[in-house]
Amino acid sequence: MTGKDLLPRIGAQLAVVVGAIALAAAMVAAIGVSPGDALSVFWDGTFGRSANLGTTLTQSVPLLLVALGWIVTTRAGRLHVGFPGQVITGGSAATAVGLQCGGLPMPLAVLATVAAGGLGGMLWAAVTAWLWASRGVLEIVSSLLLNLVAVQVAAWLVRGPLQGSLDGQPQSKTFPDSTWWPAYDGIPGRTLSYDVVLLPICAILVVVVLSRTVFGFRLRMAGGNRDAARWSGVDPVREGVKAILISGGLAGVAGAALLFAGSTPWMSDGFEANVGFNGIAVALLARNSAAAAPIAAIAFSSLNVGGTALQAQLDVPSSMASVLQGAVIVLVLVAAVLLQRRVSRRAATALSPAPESDAKDADPAPLAERV
Questions:
Q1: Among positive and negative, which fits the CA dihedral 354, 358, 360, 362?
Q2: What is the pLDDT of residues 107-121, one digit of tens each?
Q3: Among 98, 149, 252, 344, which one is most buried in terms of CB atoms within 10 A?
Q4: In sequence order, what are the residues at sequence separation of 6 or more whose Cβ sits closer than 8 angstroms to the Cβ of residue 215?
Q5: Could you tell me which of 146, 164, 156 has the C-alpha nearest to residue 98?
């Protein structure tokens, strides 16, 4: 990236931040709340206290995992929206395994829930991959429909095989203590789980795999030009299937993180809480950059946590946070389009032929030297 490209990008990002703040101020002012008070409550509810900071960081982990899954699939040229279903199936598989791990030491029990979550999400994504690769069903259609199936499966599980509430509530049995993902003791309420280390580790891992490995090169080639990929010996279908499976595994681990690093010691049918679709929004907010995804995930998580604080203390509707999230994404996309147009105009100007008068006035000597 040259200096000419970097400055407009930084300017666009700053413009998005300023626009989002101005929009949020206008929204809270419209319902009679002082923007200054709202900003103070928002900061205190997200980063101002250690417990709230822990909640913001912990809730950003599942969002990041889903966002990375979206980035991997788009690099391979595939688009699917099955992340909600994969989060649900991953969490369900982790619950089914975790409930049987009460006698295991904590490290083994935690690893078992992580592995079960990843495998559950990957198997659910395999249905989408198989329908696309062998039957030609568009992955975006099949994955969307499979989300509905996953919701019904989870509802059946917490009312049937996994139901453990004595009063018949739709929830599983309480998780064994050994299956809880470890949390930082210095922050009250188990709000900061150690899975927060996944934020930099997963982002760096995806960046390295996509940019520095043969696998990443083949994936990007399959997503860039399918004909060129075939001529180079790369099978776009095979790479697309791999990408969908990896994204499903990441989403499944996100489902396990929601349950075993959360504050509720059981699984209910609504535990997914729109993390699947919000993770896609995080990827769009980061403009499909794995390096920027952790920051986008934390920002998106802060809007959720801060929205709850605003509702509790200033009676601001919780739906306002969702509106602001959507507005931020629109601002980011508009900024991206404007930047792309600027780059295209500059490239067209660079490729346009020199004016005829300039050609006539040109000194022939350098041309002769080149010939």
A1: negative
A2: 999 999 999 999 999
A3: 252
A4: 209, 242
A5: 164
